[in-house]
Amino acid sequence: VCFALSWQCFRALCCKGPPPPRPEYDLVCIGLSGSGKTSLLSQLCSESPENIVSTTGFSIKAVPFQNAILNVKELGGADNIRKYWSRYYQGSQGVIFVLDSASSEDDLETARNELHSALQHPQLCTLPFLILANHQDKPAARSVQEV
User: Fold this and answer.
1) Fewest beta carbons within 10 Å, which of 25, 37, 63, 83?
2) pLDDT on residue 2
3) Is 34 annotated as belonging to a binding site?
4) Is there a binding annotation on residue 116?
5) What is the pLDDT of residues 46-64, one digit of tens each?
6) Is the pLDDT of residue 22 over 70?
7) Has 91 been labeled as part of a binding site?
């Protein structure tokens, strides 16, 4: 009986085969410096929030979900890096735009201009966009309507 039970378990494990592959989607994550892009991706990957360092160039993270994997290219948001964002757009299937809802009026205007530029870019204009108004927990945060 023990042998028969073990054989059934062995057969069930071996004959079942690997699970079907999950579809993968390539996304680009953009926003000004300090908007929270790195924190967002770290949280989605269940990484510790203590060791988060702002992205100075770009990074790629695979964010696993039950039915899919998101390969997210996070692009640094510093002034001298934003001009290179478009070099990383090719092959993207969606866009995450993160903005700091508690930022200054000037930074919000810069973020608005960068968002409009991305929305009009030929490689992005037909893709789905997620616009995330981050830092809603701060006292100076603007509402969705204000953003």
Assistant:
1) 83
2) 45
3) yes
4) no
5) 887 777 777 778 899 999 9
6) yes
7) no
